[in-house]
Amino acid sequence: MDVTGQFIHNEDVTGTEDTTPSAAPEYETVEGADPAHAKHPWQRYVALGDSFTEGIGDPDPSRPGYHRGWADRIAQELANGTENFAYANLAVRGRLIRQIRDEQIAPALELKPDLITLCAGGNDVIRPGSDPDETARVLDTMVQLLATTGATIVLFNGPDVRDTPVMGSIRGKVAIFNENVRTVAARYDAVVADMWSLRELTAKEMWDEDRLHFSALGHHTIARMVLDTLNVPHDLDPVQPQPPVERSWREARVDDAVWARHHLFPWVLRRLRGRSSGDNITAKRPNIEPLFGGSMPPGGGSEESEESTP
């Protein structure tokens, strides 16, 4: 597979905090099918990961308690005009990278996909004391196995969290992990969906009220980027967030207190108890089926536990 753009080929990349590009580069793209003759070459898409890929933060307006997310959105676009297109989503909220490896890789291989998206490691990177290089080494073993399918593999780097209230302090760790993701992608001829360069994600409206997951607008924006990266024509229009509302210092602190009570404290409590938001949650589309097949339509996955644990 030909991928445009330069990848870094060193074994371990350390990186530094000050890695913001002076201008957002163009997305790296895959040379896919000629849009004049075929929309894309894929028929069996499997999505792997955690709450990001499950779609947390993007509630389905037509199905209360269920989620869509960027993966469902791109699956719908890929299915349009593609005969026999099938989609599975094995992602489960709260999963760490080794859990994704142990629970999702083998089922994914059995589904015989020709397109795989994998976003894993984010929940590890945000944990205090975690090692982004070690997390990337686990990612490498996962991609090595997935590459045996011959499928197109899309990996994700993390967004630039400089301006986010919760995760700004781990910006350096995210940058280190991102460079390792590029190294892994280069090694196995995978594609990188570049969220770090997606500057729109710095807007507050792109994030859910829990400040850890993306909002519906954020998922929509990421879906557009992934389709553009794959060089797939699509009907997802760009949507600009509303101008931010001016708030006083006092109003901002009240919002912080509400967020801490509803999201931060429950997350800390679950960590102390060794629990996860993904406990007793199963994949919303475990079988690879036509988009409106017999198991769960896009937007599946019920809200059986709180979302605020990543």
TrEMBL record:
Segments for region (Disordered): 1-23, 280-310
Coiled coil spans: none
UniProt keyword annotations, A-Z: Hydrolase
GO molecular function: hydrolase activity
InterPro entries in alphabetical order: GDSL_Rv0518-like, SGNH_hydro, SGNH_hydro_sf
Record-annotated SGNH hydrolase-type esterase domain positions: 47-219
Name of the protein in its database record: SGNH/GDSL hydrolase family protein
